[in-house]
Design a protein that fits this description.
With 193 residues, the chain is an alpha/beta fold. The chain has one domain: Pyruvate-ferredoxin oxidoreductase, PFOR, domain III (Pyruvate-ferredoxin Oxidoreductase, domain 3). It is 38% helix and 23% strand. It has eight helices and seven strands. Strands 1, 2, 3, 4, 5, 6 and 7 form a seven-stranded mixed sheet that branches. A hairpin with a 6-residue loop joins strand 3 and strand 4.
């Protein structure tokens, strides 16, 4: 199969590394060649971060160029907009609608753009947007936004639920497993906004 590309974008500390590990494990267990990039950005300071996950029969590089991403999984709307040029025509943006103000907005040097979900859709992108924070809190932890997003992303793959659960069990510490399984299920069940 041709190589498929997933970009995970967000703000440092939101769990993008765990999300990329889970996807990497899922694809490896399904027999694909997988490349997962390092996290790029100021992940410990609340800055923009991006992780690349590529899988297929043979993957030569972990890097995704502009216009190559099949999916952008975004933890925050402004990050979805920032990385939109990397989405290929017909690609899907799975995004949390949560707003996290970047430093220029916090210090008053800029304003957070309004209507980002509509702007993403008007670009021609297929956008699957939902309030992942509220869903994660229903599952038991605001820190489960990453797993809610992956639950929603799973809607676009023809993999068995057991494959996703096996990957989840491999990367999530046992004491958080049941809560994360609930977050995944709630994310998968959530509809388009």
């Amino acid at each position: 199969m041709e190589t498929k590309n997933i970009m995970i974008v967000g703000v440092g500390g939101q769990g993008s590394l765990l999300a990329s590990k889970l996807l990497g494990r899922l694809f490896l267990d399904r027999g694909y060649d997988v490349k997962v990039s390092e996290v790029h950005g100021m992940s410990q300071r609340g800055g923009s971060v991006v992780t690349y996950v590529r899988y297929g029969d043979r993957v030569a590089s972990p890097i995704i160029d502009r216009g190559q991403a099949d999916f952008i999984v975004s933890f925050e709307l402004l990050e979805a907009a920032r990385w939109l040029p990397f989405l290929k025509p017909g690609g899907v943006v799975v995004t949390n609608t949560q707003r996290i103000d970047p430093m220029p907005v916090i210090i008053g040097a800029a304003e957070y753009p309004e209507g980002l979900t509509d702007k993403l859709r008007s670009s021609g992108a297929r956008v699957d947007a939902m309030d992942c924070l509220a869903i994660a809190e229903r599952a038991g932890s605001s820190k489960a936004v990453n797993i809610v997003l992956l639950g929603r992303l799973s809607h676009y793959f023809d993999f068995d639920e057991a494959d996703w659960m096996s990957a989840l069990e491999a990367v999530v510490p046992p004491k958080f497993l049941e809560m994360n399984k609930k977050a995944f299920a709630l994310g998968k069940e959530a509809g388009n906004n």
